[in-house]
Specification:
This protein is elongated. The relative contact order is 0.11. The protein is built from 8 helices and 20 strands. The strands form 4 sheets. Strands 6-7-8-3-9-10 form a 6-stranded mixed beta sheet, with helices on both faces. The protein has a 5-stranded antiparallel beta sheet with strand order 13-12-11-14-20. The protein has a 5-stranded antiparallel beta sheet with strand order 15-19-16-17-18, with no helix packed on it. The chain is α+β, with helices and mostly antiparallel strands. The structure holds adenosine-5'-triphosphate.
């Protein structure tokens, strides 16, 4: 490989399985983390994200499979020989050491000369935009600042891989957004290969080069944020990546990737899909809450129209610039619609119609009945 070429499998999980007694935390995981990229493990609590990260860190051993960093199998390499930077939810700074000593910790361990150590620590503090705090104690810094120090401590050793396990979840909403941008920028500036763990889909979508969606220890989907969001491969991913509605339907026809389906109440929908659906196939139409358009029923001009449903607003809640509406259909199903706040928002009890462009409808094969 030439010097400039990036290694697409800088970190590699190969057939990784991890069992704790009878619990299988990770099931046959294959995963490549390209050099210089930020890859996120995303999934609900207990899906095995942390276990996977801890195996890369050397804090757990895989039951089966290999972990490879820069072409070398590291299963038996102890943690301190893996050259990793780590950041966790609780900043884990040493409370009785100064900021300088906290950041310098990994450098001291590696035996750097004093001058060089000082230069590196000062530079790392500048990179996390906290110059001049080296003589303070951790307790004299805010939570957000302490997390930046943790970041400085992780990057100062110029790690091969940066590991971050829910590093933002202890911060309040505004700080979280700020730190998210900070980590994103720093990761790009340094070009450090990063594995990031979160259960927060917004965090994953906004920062990642690649997202691995996990459930019950298994990879559900792997792709760029746009791929996993727009082309979710199953109900779980569609749901986990934000506010999807599912409408049961049966395929009527499929021509040139435009699939006509019919709902139980005989309403017709058109959806774009490249899957080879056949007439009679049972499907679910998947529509994101943001993609439905809402109108007053009285404004409906009576034209025959596809992709149109009627209902009544059963509930609503404001979310800053947007409103979440819950629209109850005649069959009792409640549809979630998120629209921008308008001057005359819809009220509870309003009769409405909702519509959606065929390009914004995805089709998934119906789930087998439990
Ligand atoms: P969270 O976001 O809650 O940390 P997670 O997705 O990171 O969840 P893990 O912490 O990796 O999930 O846990 C995966 C599964 O393995 C869970 O069922 C958990 O209870 C189990 N597990 C993790 N560590 C151990 C352990 N040391 N001993 C026994 N079971 C464990």
């Amino acid at each position: 490989m030439s010097k400039k070429e990036k290694d697409p499998a800088f970190v590699k999980f190969k057939g990784i399985v991890k069992r704790f007694g009878k619990v299988t935390a990770v099931q046959t995981m294959d995963l490549d983390i390209p050099e210089g990229s930020l890859v996120t493990l995303l999934g609900p609590s207990g899906c095995g994200k942390t276990t996977l990260l801890r195996m890369l860190a050397g804090l757990e051993s895989p039951t089966e499979g290999d972990i490879i960093i820069k072409g070398k199998r590291v299963n038996d390499t102890p943690i301190h020989k893996r050259n990793l930077g780590m950041i966790f939810q609780n900043y884990a700074l040493f409370p009785h050491k100064t900021i300088f000593d906290n950041v310098a910790f990994g450098l001291k361990y590696r035996g750097f000369p004093k001058d060089e150590m000082r230069t590196k620590v000062i530079k790392a503090l500048e990179m996390v935009r906290l110059p001049g705090v080296e003589n303070r104690m951790p307790s004299q810094l805010s939570g957000g600042q302490q997390q930046r120090i943790a970041l400085a401590r992780a990057i100062v050793i110029e790690p091969d891989v940066l590991l971050m396990d829910e590093p933002l979840s202890a911060l309040d909403e505004n700080l979280r957004e700020e730190m998210r941008r900070e980590i994103d920028n720093l990761q790009q500036v340094l070009g450090v290969t990063t594995l990031f763990v979160t259960h927060d889909q917004r965090e994953a979508l906004s920062m990642s080069d690649k997202i691995i969606v996990m459930k019950d220890g298994k990879k559900q989907q792997e792709g760029t944020p746009i791929e996993v969001y727009n082309n979710s491969v199953n109900h779980f991913v569609a749901d986990f990546l934000g506010h999807s509605n599912f409408l049961s339907a049966v395929v009527e026809s499929n021509e040139d990737e435009m699939v006509k389906v019919r709902l139980e109440d005989k309403t017709s929908f058109l959806a774009r899909s490249s899957e080879p659906f056949l007439a009679g196939d049972k499907v679910d139409i998947v529509v994101r809450a943001q993609k439905f358009l809402l109108g007053h029923r009285s404004d409906y001009n009576g034209e025959e129209n596809m992709n149109l449903l009627f209902g009544r607003i059963s509930d609503r809640s404001y979310m800053g610039g947007e409103v979440s509406y819950y629209v109850e259909l005649p069959n009792g199903q409640v549809i979630h619609v998120i629209n921008l706040v308008k001057r005359n928002p819809f009220k509870q009890g309003d009769e409405v119609h909702i519509s959606v462009n065929p390009e914004n409808c995805r089709l998934l094969r119906a789930r087998p009945k439990a």
